[in-house]
Amino acid sequence: MARPRFHFVRDYRRLVRDLLAKYPLQQAMSLAVGGNYDAIGEVEKQILLGLGLQPGHTLIDVGCGSGRLAKALVPHLGPGRYFGTDILQELLDYARVGCPESWQFACVEDIRIPFPDDCADFASFFSVFTHLLHEESYCYLLEARRVVKAGGTIVFSFLEYEDNWPVFENAYTALLNGEMTVHLNMFIHRDVIAAWAQRLGMSVVDMRGANEPFVELTRPVVYDDGHCAEGVAPLGQSVCVLRNDKPAPDGRSTFRSYETSYRVV
């Protein structure tokens, strides 16, 4: 059976190609993940540490991009405790610079998580479900249920209309002006997340709004526009925390019907 082709692979190949042609490498790698490379990496790191991520834990960082979270976690996770996936090799090559050699980065062009059952304590999806169809996000959560240990933690960010209306406004304005949008922006209602969790056998531990200050910072964080966050800060996207209450029913990967398309680098 032919392997499906996913819109997000096409979209991000085009985006990163254009950024690399226009900007120096460091700036392009920051813009490829939305900018504010160091600041958002620090905030995401503090979210995970606040949820109990320990040096001996294993984290799977799906959609790790150019490594803003990975680099922030270097002082906090032990050797071999980080698995990152993304769809573009250029991003992964940049991400692994400065990280322990034992950390694994896999180029995955579909909706698998190519790691063994029950291998991780945490799985994170920062700025991933924001660009996927709901069915694709749910497939990723099925895989997260498989790879995360029973009782483990799954964290993802998402867009809500109330807090992230400018994202939607920019998208429809581009359409009205005959412009091509860079990639899909998807909004998720909290009722949808609750339904997913129920069917996945997961518990919703916490949900926070995009502009809700809840991330406890240990140092000031400076954003690209010059403003500085201290104390307690928001992420800028809503955040959901799930607990993996049940393992996958058969203990196997959800996707076995087409050829695996990843490589570990």
Average of pLDDT: 90
Shape: globular
**Overall tally of structural domains:** 1
Strand order of the largest sheet: 6-11-5-4-1-2-3-12
Comma- or semicolon-separated keywords:
12 strands; Rossmann fold; globular; 265 residues; alpha/beta; eight-stranded mixed β-sheet; two-stranded antiparallel ribbon
Describe the structure.
The chain is built from 8 helices and 12 strands. It is 34% helix and 21% strand. With 265 residues, it is an alpha/beta fold. Strands 6-11-5-4-1-2-3-12 form an 8-stranded mixed sheet, with helices on both faces. A two-stranded antiparallel ribbon has the order 7-10. It starts with 6 loop residues before the first helix and ends with a strand. It has one domain: 3-Layer(aba) Sandwich (Rossmann fold). Mean pLDDT is 90; it is low at 251-265. The radius of gyration is 18 Å and the shape is globular. It has helices spanning 7-22, 25-31, 37-50, 68-73, 89-95, 134-147, 161-176, 190-200, and strands at residues 59-62, 82-86, 104-108, 120-125, 148-158, 202-208, 215-216, 221-222, 228-229, 232-233, 238-244, 262-264.
